[in-house]
């Protein structure tokens, strides 16, 4: 059974905070490729930023996500990913029309269950690394929901609840997914 678990969904939906809570509970967490790329591009005055060149950004995210996937291939315990190769491939398809999602999504599988954070206007916020508005974030969420469904993942949409409640739900759900 694949132990690489994706937490994806709407930007600003509480993913990073949730993943930090899982890290504090002793689990391995892989930081979102997009945030790493944005920090690098801002530091070097680069242009592979989602608000300048989304296709270039998505190509870099695909490379980073594939490396993250490979680096965590042999884990015996749960490893939680803040977004995945599916997210990056979906972004590239949206930006460029390049058809990569089906191939990349099937050659780099994650655990069969994916957890999605829905749009949550009350906690959404923009910052230097997240410059798009809530409407764009909600559109991205819809694309991701469709992408994960198309690839056959079982999707659990996380409730708008406390971080601890969300983390507990994820761990209970994964425990139920483990074959006896």
Automatic annotation (TrEMBL):
Coiled coil feature spans: none
Ranges of residues in domain NadR/Ttd14 AAA: 4-166
Gene3D superfamilies: P-loop containing nucleotide triphosphate hydrolases (3.40.50.300)
InterPro entries assigned: NadR/Ttd14_AAA_dom, P-loop_NTPase
Pfam families: AAA_28
Name of the featured protein: NadR/Ttd14 AAA domain-containing protein
Annotated organism of origin: Methyloceanibacter caenitepidi
């Amino acid at each position: 059974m694949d132990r690489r678990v994706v937490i994806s969904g709407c930007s600003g939906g509480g993913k990073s905070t949730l993943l930090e809570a899982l890290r504090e509970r002793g689990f391995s967490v892989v930081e979102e490729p997009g945030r790493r790329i944005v920090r690098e591009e801002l530091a070097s005055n680069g242009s592979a930023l989602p608000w300048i060149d989304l296709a270039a950004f998505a190509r870099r995210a695909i490379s980073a996500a594939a490396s993250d996937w490979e680096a965590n291939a042999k884990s015996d315990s749960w490893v939680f990913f803040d977004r995945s190769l599916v997210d990056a491939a979906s972004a590239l398809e949206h930006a460029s029309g390049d058809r990569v999602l089906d191939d990349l999504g099937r050659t780099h599988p994650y655990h069969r269950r994916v957890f999605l954070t829905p749009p949550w206007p009350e906690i959404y916020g923009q910052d230097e690394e997240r410059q798009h508005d809530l409407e764009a974030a909600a559109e991205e969420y819809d694309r991701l929901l469709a992408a994960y469904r198309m690839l056959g993942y079982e999707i659990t949409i996380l409730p708008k609840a406390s971080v601890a409640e969300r983390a507990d739900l994820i761990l209970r759900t994964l425990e139920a997914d483990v074959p006896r």
